[in-house]
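On to my pick:
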Amino acid sequence: MYDTVTGETLDVSRDDKKDLDSFLAQNPTIKLIQKSVPTVRLAIRIQDKVFYDGENPLGIDQYPFIPVIGFYNKSMPYMYQRISGVCRSLRDPQMLFNRRVILSADLLESQVNSGWIFKENAPVDVKHLFLTGQGRIIPIKDEAQLADIQPIVPPQIPPSFFALQEVFDKELYNCSGLSEENLGKIVEDNSSGYLSALRQGAGLTAQQPIFDRLDLSQNMLGERIMQIVQANYTPGKIQRILEGQQPAPIFYNKAFGKYHCMVQEGFNTESQRQMEFAQLLKLKEIGVNIPDSVLIEKATIQKKNDLVKALDAQQQLQQQIQQQQMQLQMQELRARAELSHARSEADRGLAYERISRVEENHALAQKQLAESNKEDELALLNKVKILKELESIDLAHLKELIGLSNQLKVAEQATVKPKEPLKQSEAEIAEGQLVHGI
């Protein structure tokens, strides 16, 4: 069948003639063209006898297998030489490497027993020279000298011998196009995960044709399996495979499943996630502030959900504790602010009080000054009065009054408690001072 609109073709040599006629009647754009097509038959032969030669029992007109081709060289004369895999290119360097290892082992063994140089009839028995192992003895005759038997000094192994062996070892990687990281070898050179991923990618560059052919073979295998299923599986079997669900009507369409998929290295693969985790861990080691939650999210570990829940609970508890601490700090700051405001108000009132006391002190000072002037004036007035009264008092009469006063004091002292009388000189001095003052 040929679709004149889209150009698609479909082999219908096995379909029923009635169904084909009804399909062509409903689709006028499709024409039926008869032509010879290649076919695949199944032949079973046992001991040169043919037991079966006919159509494929699977109901398809194609081979029931898909080859996966490694390298294809069409210039080779024989077919078995045209198709080869990765291991075919490693045979020659592997043979060279094996030969080098055998030579190295033989060279090391020759270092142990390299032979002897001896004079004829010097040893008692020549078989003693072939003895190996610990504690061997070589007896010589009495007339022989020690110099008559000498060991052959083995040649020194040049350093280039082992360097060449390392070169042959690396030829395996060079011929295969792979690196040590591709074969699972851990190279401890303190490099980052990103650099290791670049090395792996560079090693896979030479193997990209093989991966492309593998992708093509997998796509072809999927199409071949779909053809076999559509040709042989019944709706009941498909329903059992789908756990009781009926297949979609498009499943019975022979054009169903003709699509192409491109296989690429995905980001959500296990190796990619591990590489991402290693890169984040390396960034945190060099000082980049990466949260722990991001590291746990990118880690490829078992029971990560339980760990995430535990970390979330711990983080919530820490947030509650931090919130309580912030509340206490805010209360403390609020109390300190209120205390500072109260102190400022008290200091402001004290300042107002001191300012008001300045005027009061000034008025009090004025009052005290006035009273002091008044007292000075009264004292001057009293002095004037005393002087005025003294002018009118007789001196003789004053002496009598002083003597009477002294007698009264003596009598009073005698009645209360006898006291030591004043000396005559002191009484005279006191009386003289009084008189002089007057």
